[in-house]
Amino acid sequence: MTTQKTTTEISLKIAIKCANGLKAGTKNKAMVTELTTSAVMAHLSGVGVVDTVGISGADFILALWGALEDNKEALAVYRAQLNRISKKVRKENGDKNPLALTVKDGKLVDVIPRTAKGGSGDGDGDGESAETSAPDTAIDPAIKLAFEVLSRMIKKEKDEKQLDALKTAVAVLAAKL
After folding, report:
1. Strand partners of residue 56
2. How far apart (Å, rounded) are the C-alpha atoms in residues 172 and 159?
3. How far apart are CA 2 and CA 4, in angstroms?
4. Which of 70, 116, 124, 158 is paired with 76 by a 20 to 30 Å CA distance?
5. So where are the chain's domains?
6. pLDDT digits (tens, 9 = 90+) for 9-37
7. Whole-prediction pTM value?
8. Distances, alpha carbon 41 to alpha carbons 15, 33, 34, 61, 150, in Å
């Protein structure tokens, strides 16, 4: 066997391993995106529970965040993903200036934008700024009740078609918030 042929075979094996790793990573990212979207929707709707994992949306996000704290690169990716998803869900729910969610001191909180602190930015101030609060995100009690009823129905449903229909109803209802 020639050296060139051996090198080509090794390169092909490495490429296949890389491709398999990329496929697995893409599948995992899609799964995390789906679960995080469900968790954010549950958290923001006031329903709380993510039916696919059986815990509250906030608890799921906090648990995943905690599991990533030992890997700064992965945590940075998840932080960006959580920011993007939470802003998207809020925008779909009618928020004109949606705030992102993040984890701070072990709690799920709204990100306060840098521009929300006030000041002219010309550097002549004494460093004090006006604080702003997060926008009012009160949930209509009828919608909250509908989420709770649908969540209970989803937990009990065994038929896949019915389950898909109920999950779609929850997604449509969440989009109208």
Report:
1. 49
2. 20
3. 5
4. 116
5. 3-134
6. 888 888 888 888 888 888 888 888 988 99
7. 0.57
8. 39, 12, 11, 12, 14
